[in-house]
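Predicting holo structure, magnesium ion bound.
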Amino acid sequence: MADVVLQADAITAGYNRVAAIRDFSLTVERGEVIALLGPNGAGKTTSLLSMVGLIDLMGGSVTALGREVTSRRTTSLVRAGLMLVPDDRGVFADLTVREHFRMARAKPSKTREQFVLDRFPALRNLQSRKAGLLSGGEQQMLAIGKALLAEPKILLIDEMSLGLAPIIVQEMLPGIRDLAKDEGIAVVLVEQHVALALSVSDRAIVLNHGRIVLEGSAAQLLKEQGRVESAYFGANEFADTAHESLPA
Ligand SMILES: Nc1ncnc2c1ncn2[C@@H]1O[C@H](COP(=O)(O)OP(=O)(O)O)[C@@H](O)[C@H]1O
Ligand SMILES: [Mg+2]
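Done. Tokens:
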């Protein structure tokens, strides 16, 4: 297990002392892509926030890059390469692409910038465009490109395709997988386009009502999408004590 870079061990976390995820465990190795799936409100975002120390744990523990994740360590962990791309993509409408690039690194690196632009050539010609005027797909590239500038070792990506057409997502996701493989980045990908996400992932986890209701190899689950669907829709059989405060 030498290559494990991120490990969540039976974590429980939530808001105002009400658990939104319970007993969540996950192990990610270098270069691995994990799809984190599940319906709205399942606890996907909460899981990601827990793993970067942005919400306090009620139980369990998280280790990233050999260190325990706590809210006090978030900044130093980010510097070490633990990176979250939030579901609003973390881009600022009034700033240009170039300005985003400049902000992404304390110490600018032309080499790294070229590397990112080679990955997302469309951004080359958009350097002076404000992010608010970019298309959804271009904003997506900017969000990932910006994250890559900082040379992350772990990339947690939260529904970057929210509101985008499947065709755009289809163009983007293979690039994420290639990055993981080429650069050895561990990726946790939250994605509503289930089949697309499975097609670029190594393993998948389905959450429902704050609990893991299904997990397995992405290739296997792609072949057995019925099981994934029941995990989404027929989850009551798993949910039992899962989340008292959720509406029925
Ligand atoms: N800031 C918050 N305050 C209180 N409850 C929240 C907050 N964010 C999310 N929740 C609740 O936690 C549960 C899990 O939400 P979330 O992790 O955002 O799910 P997902 O990302 O899978 O849609 C939901 O019941 C949601 O209403
Ligand atoms: Mg979410």
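Confidence is low (pLDDT under 50) at residues 237-248.
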